[in-house]
């Protein structure tokens, strides 16, 4: 495929206005340590980061170039390109640096990692064969919350639907409850069922990222959308039903029929980051119920006149969903406190440097 027309990759006139002088635009297709594979009008290039890009990334990992970024390339005297700058992102799917410590608590540094940038659609892929595990519904809620926060439009894909013919409608109903207001589709890449519907979200030069656990069939779906084997695939292990990591790097793949897909490695743990409205949108049903609670600051934990607890007791709201809401609310608050603490520390360090320079200047005055 020729990329002489970068509009096929989503380049627009408004982005052209953001391009630094004496540079050319390119889109990041893949990243490695200190370097990236980019697609420019004259083809694909392996480029290293400029010193300003490296310094910005060291100060804040969110500034690190990622797949989907539009970047500015500068031609060096020796004839090779250098990645000179990352252009402003229209959307960014960012996960927080959250992990479990040795005693089972949350740990992290409050910094984030961008998984994909300038994405229009976020496909959340959940394999139907794991549908009996409630944690999977929790994973859908988490990923959809992050998708809303990214600025992209979430779409949930229940993949490998050919393995779950009996009761599939009930499964889809459960998933729709976990993701209110979000399109939910059953997809069988092997049978070709639902693939064309998925492709309809990628008209023109729209970009989608596919997120989900290993074994969800993400790479198989990419191959089905591309109409060719562009990604390596593997079978799920029969012993435990888990998938192997077939995609090691995030990769941007232009499709022949139009549109771009970003495939990602399987996600085992993904933390919230800088969450404003994502959790509220995923749990809009709980938010609506909470408006009918007697007290405006109701914690839905035994207070009189609590409409949320009443909905749980009547069976209108699953207990699992309320617990998931509490978990994500706690995590979002924790990440916000970690981020605030990091920003305060950075500001303190900045003022220490300024004060030291002022004292040094005072000592050097005649």
Arrangement of strands in the largest sheet: 12-11-10-13-15-14
Broad shape: flat
Oligomer designation: single chain
Mean of all residue-level pLDDT scores = 81
Sheet-strand content, in percent, reads 15-25%
**Residue windows where pLDDT falls under 50 for at least 5 positions:** 98-110, 236-245
- Summarize the main sheet: 6 strands, mixed
User: Could you estimate the helical fraction of the residues in percent?
Assistant: 25-40%
β-strand number: 15
Radius of gyration: 23 Å
Derived structural class? alpha/beta
Care to describe what's here?
The model is unreliable at 98-110 and 236-245 (pLDDT under 50). β11 (153-159), α4 and β12 (183-186) form a beta-alpha-beta unit. The strands form four sheets. Strands 12-11-10-13-15-14 form a six-stranded mixed sheet, with helices on both faces. The chain is built from ten helices and 15 strands. It is flat. It has helices at residues 13-16, 51-59, 134-150, 168-178, 195-199, 218-226, 278-282, 284-290, 307-314, 319-364; strands spanning 24-32, 35-40, 43-49, 70-75, 81-86, 92-96, 99-100, 106-107, 112-117, 121-127, 153-159, 183-186, 207-211, 251-254, 260-263. It is of the alpha/beta class and 366 residues long.
């Amino acid at each position: 495929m020729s990329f002489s027309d970068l509009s096929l990759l989503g380049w627009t006139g408004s982005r052209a206005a953001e391009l630094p002088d004496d540079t050319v635009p390119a889109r990041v297709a893949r990243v490695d340590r200190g370097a990236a594979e980019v697609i420019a009008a004259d083809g694909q290039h392996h480029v290293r980061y400029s010193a300003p890009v490296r310094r910005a990334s060291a100060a804040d990992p969110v500034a690190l170039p990622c797949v989907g970024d539009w970047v500015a390339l500068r031609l060096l005297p020796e004839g090779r390109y250098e990645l000179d700058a990352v252009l402003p992102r229209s959307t960014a799917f960012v996960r927080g640096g959250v992990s479990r410590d040795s005693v089972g608590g949350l740990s992290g540094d409050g910094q984030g990692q961008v998984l994909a940038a300038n994405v229009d659609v976020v496909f959340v892929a959940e394999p139907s064969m794991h549908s009996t595990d409630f944690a999977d519904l929790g994973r859908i809620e988490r990923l959809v919350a992050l998708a809303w926060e990214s600025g992209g439009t979430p779409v949930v894909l229940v993949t490998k639907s050919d393995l779950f013919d009996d009761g599939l409608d009930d499964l889809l109903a459960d998933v729709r409850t976990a993701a209110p207001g979000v399109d939910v589709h059953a997809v069988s890449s092997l049978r070709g069922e639902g693939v064309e519907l998925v492709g309809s979200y990628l008209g023109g030069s729209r970009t989608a990222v596919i997120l989900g656990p290993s074994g969800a069939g993400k790479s198989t779906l990419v191959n089905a959308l591309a109409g060719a084997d562009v990604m390596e695939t593997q079978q799920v292990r029969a012993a435990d039903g888990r998938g192997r990591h077939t995609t090691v790097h995030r990769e941007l793949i232009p499709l022949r029929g139009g549109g771009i897909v970003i495939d990602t490695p399987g996600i085992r743990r993904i933390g919230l980051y800088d969450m404003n409205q994502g959790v509220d949108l995923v749990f809009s049903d709980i938010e609506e119920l909470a408006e009918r609670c007697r007290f405006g600051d109701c914690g839905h934990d035994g207070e009189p006149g609590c409409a949320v607890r009443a909905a749980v007791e009547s069976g209108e709201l699953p207990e699992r969903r309320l617990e998931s809401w509490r978990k994500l609310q706690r995590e979002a608050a924790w990440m916000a406190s970690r981020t605030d603490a990091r920003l305060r520390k950075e500001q303190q360090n900045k003022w220490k440097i300024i004060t030291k320079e002022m004292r040094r200047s005072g000592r050097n005055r005649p």
